[in-house]
Amino acid sequence: MKSLAELAAIRDKMKNKVVIREGSNETRVVVGMATCGIAAGARPVLSAFVEGVNEAGLAGSVTVTQTGCIGICQYEPVVEIYESGKEKVTYVKMTPEKAAEVIEKHLKGGKVIEEYTIK
């Protein structure tokens, strides 16, 4: 059993990650986490978005969450970005490295990375 101080430290460390995944911000990053997505590597992609959004200081404006099957299994891992007043962007065959680039260029810079999207 952990001491109360150790449990409090774990809670504080994980608090930002939980807030990001449960927020109601205007920009939502949704990672497909059905069986096909997980098998294709969606879990590290989800982690990369959660950690990257937090590190970039975007937790106040971007929510990272997960969903079940998006319906395009051959393109997994799939990430959809919903921004208020804009058309949904669907990124396909994502990796943690691509996630970092999407955070920098799309979420921070406002520029969609066309080569990672579904045509």
List keywords for this structure.
4 strands, four-stranded mixed beta sheet, single chain, 119 residues, 44% helix, alpha+beta, Glutaredoxin, globular
CATH topology: Glutaredoxin
Structural class: alpha+beta
Order of helices and strands: HEHHEEEH
Alpha-carbon Rg, integer: 15 Å
What number of domains? 1
Task: Return the average pLDDT rounded to an integer.
Answer: 88
CATH superfamily membership: Glutaredoxin
The strand order across the widest sheet is: 2-1-3-4
Fold and architecture overview:
This protein is α+β, with helices and mostly antiparallel strands and 119 residues long. The protein has one domain: Glutaredoxin (3-Layer(aba) Sandwich), CATH 3.40.30.10. Helices cover 44% and strands 17% of the residues. The protein contains four helices and four strands; from the N terminus they run H-E-H-H-E-E-E-H. It has a four-stranded mixed beta sheet. A hairpin with a 5-residue loop joins strand 3 (79-83) and strand 4. Helix 1 crosses helix 3 and helix 3 (42-55) packs parallel to helix 4 (96-108). The mean pLDDT is 88.
